[in-house]
Design brief:
The chain is α+β, with helices and mostly antiparallel strands and 267 residues long. It is 27% helix and 28% strand. The chain contains six helices and 14 strands. The strands form four sheets. It has a six-stranded antiparallel β-sheet with strand order 9-13-12-11-10-14, with helices on one face. Strands 4-7-3-8 form a four-stranded antiparallel β-sheet. The protein is extended, with a radius of gyration of 41 Å.
Length: 267
């Protein structure tokens, strides 16, 4: 009798293994090991050597991978469009020549300082007589080019027009073309070259009207002599019987007195 009961139990286990759909819920009889199940699932899907990720339904979501690691947040990456927009805004910052009348460039400079707007006025030293002693003089910095200064700002035509209207002193921006609406601009490298060339400590510098150099032939050069002018570029010209390096800017040309032995040709 006991042998017959044991035989029936073995037969039921054998059928439960062959037909898993008839196994009782919660029974572990005939359940495949993880390695065997992974191997069969990989072979049936046609992807050899890849173990499928275990899933769980305990969280109420199907197909959620099991992991013992804590969830982590991805580090946010900058938006390329925002970065490009920032670079464009920075690249629009330019120098703009600003003109005034009646030698009010210093007053305009004070107004720009109050508005926290960067500006540049070329200056030079002049010798003035000391009070009570005509033989004694003192050097005083004065504007080298009257009625002209340069401001550094973001190029915005509407802002320029509003600045002209609100300024307490008569000012206007130079235009690229007489019939056009665009304003004249100066690049950063060109402006820094001009600022170095107009250092008031350098003697012999002249400022002339660009019309006086029209038709004169020149050679592009770069100063290679060590000193405050090293690296300054311009055009080597002859003017008034002397040689100069000319740095042309809107409404003015700066002439630096140098020797040709200080320069090298720019190809």
């Amino acid at each position: 009798m006991f042998e017959l009961f044991g035989l029936c139990v073995r037969i039921s286990v054998y059928f439960a293994y062959l037909c898993p759909e008839v196994r009782p819920r919660g029974s572990n009889c005939g359940r495949l090991s993880y390695t065997e199940a992974a191997r069969r699932q990989a072979s049936s899907s046609g992807k050899d050597g890849q173990e499928p990720a275990l899933t769980t339904r305990s969280a109420g979501k199907r197909g959620t991978p099991l992991s013992h690691e804590k969830p982590h947040h991805k580090q946010s990456t900058p938006n390329p469009n925002e970065k490009r927009m920032t670079e464009n805004i920075q690249s629009e910052t330019v120098w703009m020549p600003l003109q005034t009348i009646y030698n009010k460039e210093l007053l305009v400079g004070e107004y720009l300082r109050e508005k926290h707007i960067e500006y540049y006025i070329p200056m030079s030293y002049e010798l003035h007589e000391a009070h009570g002693d005509p033989e004694q003089g003192r050097r005083t910095l004065v504007p080298a080019i009257h009625n002209l200064l340069f401001i550094r700002c973001r190029y915005d035509e509407e802002w320029c027009r509003r600045f002209v209207r609100e300024s307490p002193h008569p000012v206007y921006f130079l235009k690229r073309e007489r019939a056009g609406n665009g304003f004249c601009t100066v690049g950063e490298a060109e402006m820094q070259n001009f600022i170095r060339a107009t250092n008031p400590d350098i003697e012999g510098t002249r400022f002339v009207n660009p019309e006086k150099l029209k038709g004169k032939k020149g050679t592009p050069v770069r100063i290679v002599k060590p000193g405050p002018l090293y690296g300054v570029t311009g055009t080597f010209v002859r003017y008034g019987g002397k040689h100069y390096i000319a740095i042309q800017m809107p409404q003015s040309t700066t002439l630096i007195k140098v020797s040709y032995t200080w320069c090298e040709l720019i190809e």
